[in-house]
Each structure stands twice: as C-alpha cells, then as structure tokens.
Amino acid sequence: MEIIKSIKEMRLWSDGCRRRGQTIVLVPTMGYLHDGHLSLMREGRRHGDKVVVSIFVNPTQFGPGEDLSTYPRDLERDFNLAKDAGADIIFTPNAWDVYPQGFDTFINQEKLPDHLCGLSRPGHFKGVMTVVAKLFHMVAPQVAIFGEKDFQQLAIIRRMVTDLNFDIQIISHPTVRESDGLAMSSRNSKLSSEQRKSALSLNLALQNAQKLLNEGETRSDRLIQTATDLILSYPGTSVDYIHICDPDSLENVSTITGPAVMALAIKVGPVRLIDNMILTT
Ligand code: PAF
C-alpha cells in the first residue's frame, strides 16, 4: 500500500491506472477508521481493480462550535487497518492544498440539504459536496462507495453526481453495527462507558418503531413520540431530531404507506450520533 499526499501525484497515479484500463474505486473517509470503513473497502475490492481510501478531516463541513478540533485522529493506526483491508492507496491531502489561499468556490443543492441534519448543521452538506466533488476530481475514480448510515449524505451525493454529470458509479453499503446494535462511528470512541449504554437507545428506538408499524401503527407522529420517549428515558440523552421521511425526497411523511426512512440525530452528553432505518409496511 502506498501513501500519497500530493494532489499532483494522486492524479498521475490515477492517469496510469486508467491508461492500463484499471477501475479505480474511491472510499472517502475522515479517518479514525472502524469496521464500517473497512467493510466499505472490502466492498470496494469487489467493484474495481484498485481501492483508494482518502483520509481528510474536511474543515468546511464542520460548523462553528462543532467538533473539528477534537475529531479523533490516528493516521498510523488508519494506515495499518487500511492496508490489512486491502487498500492500494491512502490519499491524505493537506488542507492548504485542498483549500488554497482565497478559496471561494462551493457546491450546493437547493432541496435535499433542507431536511434532517441539514437543518441543525447549516452549511454542513455544502462542505461535504464541495470536498467530495474535489476528491472525485483529484482521484478520478470510476466507482465510489458510501455508507448508508449517512443516509442524507448518500442521497445528496447521488443527486450531485447526476446533476453535475460525474461519470462515477455510487455504491452504497449497509450500516455496520457493533454486536449490541450501535451503528459504528468514529465518534463512538468519544463515549464514556455510561454514555455508550445510552447510545444503544438509537437503535432500540428504530427497532421499536418497526415493531409498532408491524402491529399497525402507521402514524409518523405517534412513532416519533414513542421513539423520543424511549431515547429520553436513557441518561444524558437529548434529541436533535427524529423524522420519518420519503427515502428519495427526504420530505416528511405523516402516514406510512410504503418504504419510509426513520432518521434520527441524538446527543449523548456532548457526542452527536446519527442512525436510520428503512421502515417497511
Ligand atoms: O462521511 C464522511 O466521512 C465524510 O462526510 C466524507 C464523505 C468523507 C466527506 O468529508
């Protein structure tokens, strides 16, 4: 496995692969890799000849007061994990190369960011879209893999790829969970053991909503209220949002008549966690 820092070198490497007819798969990450990321890499291996893992903690997707400075980082550990998972290249560009002096060009969308996390993290998806588009230019992959845990991010990236005519296949991968159901996230490392127990409420609330739906409760407001009560019964939790929405438009649905996504963002102590589940009738 090779580590590339320079954007120019990244392009040269990709040009070489493309000339040889090889398919490049990109797995974009912000590092502090966990099994969820590693399963994206393994999935990546199935879709191409070369797997590039980008590790870049993107400053433009963090708002003021968010956890940019405390976001967990451990590059050496990441290198070893990615190597074992079969990555060919780790791409770790410098922030000053990605955002050169005077940087003033962003990508945005009109509708999808106006839901879910976009409401409580204004500007977050503008930063995500901008960096992902830049990574697509720098790495020039034919395939890119994203996790379904970031459901809104996935929907937004798919829209961006279609709208901006990127010739890149976007592949999604199901959320990877700990054995007790907690969705894997780099931020889980910031939870104390007490908070870790409370964090289980996210998955329990989702499972319970599906159970109530199976029993005939199709009203979203009832399902959301029950999920809120369940989560708040755990110490140290606060609810940022719980929504039940259309999986494509992300518009709220009031009565569930077909597949709908229940998405939630919860704070456990200072740690913000998200999770989601497709509810099926
Ligand atoms: O999902 C993430 O880790 C980030 O949002 C991404 C896609 C790597 C962009 O910084």
Question: How many helical elements?
Answer: 9
- By DSSP, the count of extended strands is 9
Low-confidence stretches: none
Please give the radius of gyration in angstroms: 19 Å
Sheet with the most strands: spatial strand order: 1-4-3-2-5-6
What general form does the structure show?
globular
Overall pLDDT confidence? 97
CATH architecture of the largest domain: 3-Layer(aba) Sandwich
- What's the SSE pattern? EHEHEHEHHHEHEHHEEE
Secondary structure topology:
Layout: E1 2-4, H1 7-19, E2 24-29, H2 35-47, E3 50-55, H3 75-84, E4 89-91, H4 95-98, H5 116-120, H6 124-139, E5 143-147, H7 151-163, E6 169-173, H8 193-214, H9 220-232, E7 237-245, E8 260-268, E9 271-279
Parallel strand pairs: 1-4, 2-3, 2-5, 3-4, 5-6
Antiparallel strand pairs: 7-8, 8-9
Helix pairs in contact: 6-7, 8-9
The structure holds pantoate.
Structure description:
- The longest helix is centred in the last third of the chain and has 22 residues, at 193-214.
- 39% of the residues lie in helices and 20% in strands.
- It has a 6-stranded parallel beta sheet, sandwiched between helices. A 3-stranded antiparallel beta sheet has the order 7-8-9.
- It folds into 2 domains: 2-173, Rossmann fold; 186-279, Pantoate--beta-alanine Ligase, Chain: A,domain 2.
- It has helices spanning 7-19, 35-47, 75-84, 95-98, 116-120, 124-139, 151-163, 193-214, 220-232, and strands spanning 2-4, 24-29, 50-55, 89-91, 143-147, 169-173, 237-245, 260-268, 271-279.
- The protein has 281 residues and is an alpha/beta fold.
- Helix 6 packs across helix 7 (151-163) and helix 8 packs antiparallel against helix 9 (220-232).
- The model has no long low-confidence stretch (mean pLDDT 97).
- The relative contact order is 0.13.
- It has 9 helices and 9 strands.
- Pantoate binds at residues 28-30, 58, 61, 128, 131-132, 150, 153.
